[in-house]
Design brief:
179 residues, mainly alpha, two-stranded antiparallel ribbon, 9 helices, 2 strands, 42% helix, 3% strand, NADH dehydrogenase [ubiquinone] 1 alpha subcomplex assembly factor 4, NDUFAF4
């Protein structure tokens, strides 16, 4: 509703207002300063002579300058200079076994992959006396404190099958007949 009202006022007498604006006398632009025109000055012989004249004092100073040039490092040539240099991380190969295709091949020291985490949690769950926190920390290059936290707070799922006699079957209920 409000759009219709504003449109009426906006379009009221629009042709007369447009004609009035078009017929107004245009303001004259401000005059330009005479030195702003470089084309006329470029043709003068005094300026050309000043540009092409050699200055002996500047030439003697230029002869004292010695520039030594070297090739940039390879990472600059390859476009690797966008990022700041950072500390090189030590990598280790993962211990995957038969799940090799599911995971990454190299992991930074002090970190483990998902498949490795599930494997070590399962090993600890099945054989806690063999796979202790100290052995896991040494095997996977982890800190003992982090391994203890991992074993305390992450527990792999267990699949439990219930015996058939405990399952409740709905056999006593007869289906209703539609009439």
């Amino acid at each position: 509703m409000g759009g219709r009202v504003t449109r009426v006022f906006r379009n009221f007498n629009v042709e007369n207002r447009a004609r009035r604006e078009i017929s107004k006398k245009k303001p004259t632009p401000a005059p330009r300063h005479p030195t702003a025109r470089l084309d006329a000055m470029a043709d003068s012989p005094e300026i050309k002579e000043e540009v092409f004249r050699k200055d002996d004092r500047f030439l003697s100073l230029l002869k004292d300058v010695y520039v030594e040039s070297r090739d940039p490092p390879a990472w600059v040539k390859d476009g690797g200079g966008e990022h700041l240099p950072r500390k090189q991380e030590e990598k280790r190969l993962t211990k995957l076994g038969h799940l090799e295709a599911l995971d990454v091949k190299k992991v930074s020291k002090g970190k483990i992959s998902i498949v490795e985490a599930l494997t070590l949690l399962n090993n600890h769950k099945l054989q806690p006396q063999i796979w202790t926190a100290e052995k896991i920390a040494a095997e996977y290059s982890l800190e003992l404190k982090e391994v203890n936290s991992l074993l305390e707070f992450f527990i792999p799922f267990t699949v439990q099958e219930f015996p058939k006699e405990t399952r409740k079957a709905i056999k006593s209920h007869k289906p209703k007949q539609l009439t």
